[in-house]
Amino acid sequence: MRDRIEGLIGRLVRASIVERVAIAAAALVAAVVVGGVLVFVSGGFASCASGLDLAGWTFCYNPMQVYYELFLGALGHPLEGGWHVHNFSLATTLRETTLLAFAGLSVAVAFRAGLFNIGTQGQLVVGGLLTAVTVLFAARFVPGGAVGTLVLVPLGVLAGAVGGGFYGAIPGALKAYGGANEVITTIMLNFVAVGVTSTLLSWRFQDPESANPQTRAVPEYAEIPTIPVIGYSPRLDFSLLALGFAVALMVGLAWMLARTSFGYELRVSGVQPEAARYGGVAEKRMTVASMTLSGALGGIAGAFWVLMQHGRWLENVPSLGFDGIAVSILAGNNPLGVGAAAFLFGVLSSGGRSINTATDVPPELVGVVSGLIILFVAMPEFFRMIGRQFLDVDEEPGRGTGGGADE
């Protein structure tokens, strides 16, 4: 039995990109079927004025309507009349996609180095606060308008990257020079980040004109700008420039992993640490560098959360960093696949709100359906990662992504 299981996992590890896409598509179909049955059966235990009557039993929920709202509602119902590309639902989906792409890249970089960075959430929190504080301070000395945008936006993103990178370097150094398990240290540092930033906020950076725990708003010209004519309204809290930056970062990281010596050392350290040491890779330096880069990407996610969505840092930071773990696993830790995985999460998030608005299905059931989709689609890649890390199963040459960016 064990041999059969290891054989199946081995086939997953050696699957080509086409086979992996086919497996993901089949898993998505299976999740839709199972979720549809669950929604339909759950409707039999709900109370409603009208529904489908079968053998004297009334089923209140329509699975077809649920999935219509989940997938098409997230795009603003493109099959209905009057649809336009700048609608609120699509903007929400793309905004979630952008932020989750940064968080997913953060986790993916660490995973590719053989490190389990569970601390992206903390790095995002620290990077976001440092972004807001830096921009608010620098805005005193920078003129407004286009000049202020050109100076403050890059400065804010850089500050987020520095803050997140520094916070990611801490568990990296603890592992490299103290032998501390990065899973434990990053989990604990998430709590430390929340406590420290909350204390700093109440002590120094709280907006005196608000009872909510938040910083003062950054100037409007310091927020991520929108593209004239083709861009979204600033009221929708989404910018195509942010999405474009995320895509450029995906491509840049994929190129770095595939075509640079640093990327090669990072990948080899994650896949074959013994071979990396034999080949002269400085293991401790690579551990710290990988976690620093991973933390910097998490800090960038926090910077865009501040500068694109809210215009200020809020104490109640959403769980983007934890969602980034699932995004990375779903993407097979491939920077190019992170975009597609983040888009699926964005659709599920935005579509879930559409279901809550258009149907009587309870939010808890919507969460279960979304979770089933994520679970079914991510599990093949999870087992594939297990096969590479723990079962000593290697990919066949020439398979995978074909460009070296995946393995």
UniProtKB/TrEMBL annotation:
The keyword Repressor does not apply. The chain crosses the membrane at residues 21-46, 97-118, 124-142, 149-170, 182-203, 238-258, 288-308, 320-345, 365-383. Signal peptide: none annotated. It is a multi-pass membrane protein. PANTHER family: ABC TRANSPORTER, PERMEASE PROTEIN, GUANOSINE ABC TRANSPORTER PERMEASE PROTEIN NUPP. It is found in: Cell membrane. One of its GO terms (cellular component) is plasma membrane. Keywords: Cell membrane, Membrane, Transmembrane, Transmembrane helix. Coiled coil: none annotated. This is ABC transporter permease. InterPro entries: ABC_transp_permease (IPR001851). The keyword Signal does not apply.
